[in-house]
Specification:
The protein is α/β, with parallel strands linked by helices and about 210 residues long. The protein has two domains: about 120 residues, 3-Layer(aba) Sandwich (Rossmann fold); about 55 residues, Orthogonal Bundle (Arc Repressor Mutant, subunit A), CATH 1.10.10. It has ten helices and five strands; from the N terminus they run βαβαβαβαβαααααα.
Length: about 210
């Protein structure tokens, strides 16, 4: 890719996203609270394509940070995805009114967040100049063998973060049977792990979020 989206991750514990997002083709800058985020934006606003903004942070919370982003001429149109806890979900409507472009509730599944990032970037001005998509370099050009209904059910639970044991309980299967289904899914989709399988399945509309 000649151009990569640059994401500002604002979170008091950013390591997971700081490590994960570059694997999918994104440049990442981090800030551990709202005040630090605003300092980054003051000096690098033109370099940032999107903000992932956690709500609960020290010094300045996500809602106040979002208000500051939307009142600045430099950043008022910058795409922002809020990251909220389940207990804060009732405040999401207020956040959307303030100007958040989307939100995701913790604990989230990485493929779900990647899909939201891609969708918001697609709607943003940034995407008019560069057709950025999630890196799918692991996808083969060969035809994909169709998944069975049971395999789709297993993969849907994987997308929700369920373990093999949890999937077995929900589908009334043995855990070894779940592993067999997963191996078959990986083989059919020509991928090597759960994240790649979910990403590809979502891209092909085999499962939904």
């Amino acid at each position: 890719m000649t151009e990569l989206a640059h994401i500002l991750v604002v979170d008091d514990n950013p390591k997971y996203l700081e490590d994960a997002l570059p694997m999918y083709g994104y440049n990442v800058t981090t800030a551990t609270d709202g005040l630090k985020a605003l300092k980054v934006l003051a000096s690098k606003a033109n370099d940032i394509d999107m903000v992932l903004l956690d709500v609960m942070m020290p010094n300045m919370n996500g809602w106040d940070t979002l208000k500051a982003i939307r009142t600045s001429e430099k950043t008022k149109t910058l795409p922002v995805i809020m990251i909220t806890a389940v207990s804060e979900e009732q405040k999401v409507v207020s956040g959307l009114k303030i100007g958040a472009d989307d939100y995701i509730v913790k604990p989230f599944i990485l493929p779900n967040l990647l899909a939201r990032i891609e969708a918001v970037l697609r709607r943003s001005n940034w995407n008019k100049n560069s057709q950025k998509t999630v890196d799918m370099s692991f996808v083969s050009d060969e035809n994909i063998e169709e998944l069975t209904q049971r395999e789709k059910e297993v993969l849907s639970f994987v997308a929700k973060g369920a373990s093999n044991h949890e999937i077995a309980e929900k589908l009334f299967l043995k855990e070894v049977t779940v592993k067999t289904h997963l191996n078959s899914i990986f083989k059919k989709l020509k991928v090597s792990n759960r994240t790649q399988a979910v990403l590809l399945a979502m891209q092909m509309n085999l499962i939904t979020e």
